[in-house]
Amino acid sequence: MVSLFKRFKITRELTRLEKKAKDDPSPSIFVDLAQVYINLGSQEDALRVVEEGLVLFPRSDELRKVLGFAKKQVLAKTIEQLRAELSKTPSPQLFIKLAQAYLGQGDEDSAFAVCRECLKRYPEDVESRLFLAEMATRAFQKTLNVEKGKEAHMVLLEILERDERNKKAHQELAQLFFGIGYLEGSQHHLSILRSLGRMDKESRDLEQEIRKALDEGAPSFEDPGTALMEVERRGGLIHGKKKGLGSTKRILGSEEALNDVRDGLSRLVAREGVSKAAYIRGSKALVKGEVRDGRDPFLKTARVFAKVAQRTVRRMDLGNFSKGILDGVFGHICICSFGDVCAAVQCQGSADLDWVLQDLQDLVAKSLYTVGKK
Fold this sequence. Notes:
Layout lengths: L3 H20 L3 H13 L3 H14 L4 H28 L3 H14 L2 H14 L4 H18 L2 H17 L4 H14 L2 H13 L5 H15 L8 H11 L20 H15 L4 E8 L2 E6 L7 H19 L7 E6 L2 E8 L2 E7 L5 H20 L2
Antiparallel strand pairs: 1-2, 1-5, 3-4, 4-5
Helix pairs in contact: 1-2, 2-3, 2-4, 3-4, 3-14, 4-5, 5-6, 6-7, 7-8, 8-9, 9-10, 10-11, 13-15
């Protein structure tokens, strides 16, 4: 137990560091502040402080080290809490959350074990099967372990036995089969999606890639077993890695993507009432308009607002933050965010905010799509 006097000293130190972090921020101040919270056993607050520090100092190695430590502490606490809840009131949702926490720690074996235990208890639960299939697919793509590929295939077929109209299972099988060179199987599941009226943009793109591969004389194997053995023999996927369920990792890098972003920002600042526009990914930003330099308050505000909004929405279990408007003496800052990418503009009262938000959303979506094709 912390004595009353010691707690008073710690509280006073926290107040001092919090004030200094606002008045004169630096990586070391955020590290010290996070360390105090860790010593108090408040890992969530430590994580909050480090994330806020990284918004301002995204290249700080000190903060990244503390971030890794704080995340491990938070995940360990989460795992302990989830295990306690499971012992009292088990449910498939709790099992999935526990598996996700183990994945966050990098403990794939425990995550697989949790999912399999869940399916023993709840064999008809589709969501836990989908999650197991996702993990198996990712593990196969990463390691080319044929057994993981077979497991992903088997689990997805089990889902379709229970729900033959399941869109995600058909999509994932189509992507898995394309990657291993079983093109006929991939086309089969896409044709089912089409007959169900459930084709989306991702499925149509995959359909075009299959046609292109066949036109170019790409190999196509007769069954998934043969295809998987060929992948193992070659030491690589036949048609490249396709993204699995829930994958959101995209990189801004191609010249075409950069040019599209620049054009989109130019169109935004040409709108009435818009003075500044930015496309931000991590520590890098493309800007247009009246942005002075990398220290412009507009950029800092956009980064902080997007990060805080994402974290708040996640903690309240409301899904994901996608877009919003921040009002102040500066006018309005409109933001659209997806993963680690956000686009933002600063505008005045004469601007049509609905149109601005739509343009921002289109800019982010198009940039991710353009890069995703590379």
